[in-house]
Design a protein that fits this description.
Elements: H1 2-12, E1 24-31, H2 37-42, E2 47-57, E3 68-70, H3 72-77, H4 83-88, E4 93-100, E5 105-116, E6 122-132, E7 140-152, E8 155-156, E9 160-163, E10 168-170, E11 174-184, E12 189-198, E13 204-212
Length: 213
């Protein structure tokens, strides 16, 4: 009897690939219909580009209001990364990442900065907040707020919220929210990404990360 219990516990400590457990990853996008490099060239502020939601689920997921289902190829054609790709970045990243796999949970918020455009004439900011399971699938949920401020010699000005979506829910390994803004590389802005994370439990944990770029 003891041997059987040990085996069950040992097996539970290893993640089973999602492809073997009947789950699928869904990508949804909400784009700024007025976005263009020409608009960025004439704007004094960062111009919103596209928000993306990524959900892994064992059942079909419908697009959130204002979003359309998409795929990674289309997201890449916009010069953007999927949320899970942002999560895997190791350079030009500012993050507040936590792992507590003894309780089967991980959570993360981050800000990723890069140059874009034919001559790197633009700055691109991509923010992310995500909630994850470690080795046993189950409900996950995430919510976030993105704050922006102008940046001067004295540091940041007054922060204003520029993105505050409602809770996004998943039923398997992960749910992630990302968004992106573009502006001229001669400008600098301060950014804060705040995340809230839950696993269908009383716990609601928070993340917060900031940078200027």
């Amino acid at each position: 009897m003891v041997t059987r219990v040990v085996l069950v516990v040992a097996l539970a400590c290893f993640a089973v690939p999602a492809s073997l457990m009947g789950s699928a990853t869904y990508l949804f996008i909400s784009e700024n219909p007025d976005f263009s490099d020409a608009v960025v060239d004439t704007s004094q502020n960062p111009v919103w580009k596209a928000a993306i939601t990524e959900i892994e689920s064992d059942s079909e997921v419908s697009a959130p209001d204002g979003y359309e289902q998409t795929d990674s190829a289309y997201i890449h054609s916009l010069g953007l990364l999927t949320p899970s790709e942002i999560d895997l970045l190791t350079t030009d990243v500012h993050r507040d990442w936590h792992s507590e796999c003894s309780r089967n949970r991980k959570w993360n918020s981050q800000i990723t900065t890069s140059y874009t455009g034919n001559n790197n004439q633009y700055k691109l900011v991509q923010v992310l907040s995500g909630t994850y399971r470690c080795y046993i699938p189950g409900p996950v949920a995430v919510r976030c707020t993105t704050w922006k401020a102008s940046w001067g010699q004295g540091g940041p000005g007054s922060y204003v919220p520029v993105w505050y979506p409602d809770w996004a829910h998943g039923s398997w390994w992960k749910v992630e929210l990302s968004n992106s803004w573009q502006y001229g590389n001669g400008s600098t802005f301060a950014w804060i990404q705040n995340g809230r994370h839950t696993w269908d439990s009383p716990d609601t944990l928070r993340t917060s990360v900031g940078t200027h770029w």
